[in-house]
């Protein structure tokens, strides 16, 4: 979200996508049960034009064939929201040959972040610097921040943080 608020891209999602990420995170982290509404609201506030309305994507859902039929709404939201890409770690459920036909690219979050960094390194570094300073532990070093990103599945992003440690 920090990269979106820095103007590097326009984030779009649906209420259904919100419900899914909240449920998935609560499943992984039961201690967060019923505590993610504040985060959701902050995301909505940070990106005022975030919503792809259900009325725009609902008629499209049944027209797509994906390995997991429960993911069709994600492709529908991307198309209805005029997105260039879907950012997900679930690459296998969005085959390139299917989504490419709609002008959509599917990218792993790590690849997406590195691409944004390459487009505007200064804005990306500033966004990551702000992100690091907002961490609960204010004395988090750039290396500790990079390690947290790597543990979160973003090894290439972590490497970029290490390379720019003096600036972040």
How would you characterize the overall build of this protein?
There is one protein chain. With 168 residues, the chain is mainly α. The protein folds into 2 domains: 2-107, no CATH class; 112-163, no CATH class. Helix content is 55%, strand content 4%. The protein is built from 10 helices and 2 strands, in the order H-H-H-H-H-E-H-E-H-H-H-H. It has helices spanning 2-5, 15-28, 37-46, 54-61, 72-80, 96-99, 109-119, 121-134, 142-151, 155-163, and strands at residues 85-87, 105-107. A two-stranded parallel ribbon has the order 1-2. The longest helix is centred in the first third of the chain and has 14 residues, at 15-28. The radius of gyration is 17 Å and the shape is globular. The relative contact order is 0.12. The model has no long low-confidence stretch (mean pLDDT 94).
What is the tally of beta strands? 2
- Biggest sheet, spatial arrangement of strands: 1-2
Overall shape: globular
Q: What does the average pLDDT come to?
A: 94
Query: How far apart are the termini?
Result: 17 Å
Q: Please give the radius of gyration in angstroms.
A: 17 Å
Q: Provide the low-confidence segments as ranges.
A: none
Number of domains: 2
Q: Beta-sheet strand percentage?
A: under 5%
Helical content band: 55-70%
The topology string of helices and strands comes to HHHHHEHEHHHH
């Amino acid at each position: 979200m920090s990269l979106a608020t820095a103007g590097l891209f326009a984030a779009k999602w649906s209420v259904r996508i919100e419900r899914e990420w909240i449920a998935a995170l609560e499943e992984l982290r039961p201690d967060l049960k019923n505590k993610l509404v504040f985060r959701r609201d902050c995301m909505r506030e940070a990106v005022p034009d975030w919503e792809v309305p259900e009325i725009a994507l609902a008629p499209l859902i049944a027209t797509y064939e994906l390995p997991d039929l429960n993911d069709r709404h994600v492709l529908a939201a991307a198309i209805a929201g005029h997105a260039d890409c879907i950012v997900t770690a679930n690459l296998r459920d969005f085959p390139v040959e299917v989504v490419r036909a709609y002008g959509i690219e599917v990218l792993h979050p790590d690849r997406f972040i590195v691409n944004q960094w390459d487009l505007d390194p200064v804005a990306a570094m500033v966004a990551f610097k702000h992100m690091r300073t907002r961490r609960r532990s204010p004395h988090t070093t750039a290396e500790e921040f990079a390690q947290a990103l790597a543990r979160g599945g973003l090894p290439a992003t972590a490497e970029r943080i290490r390379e720019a440690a003096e600036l972040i």
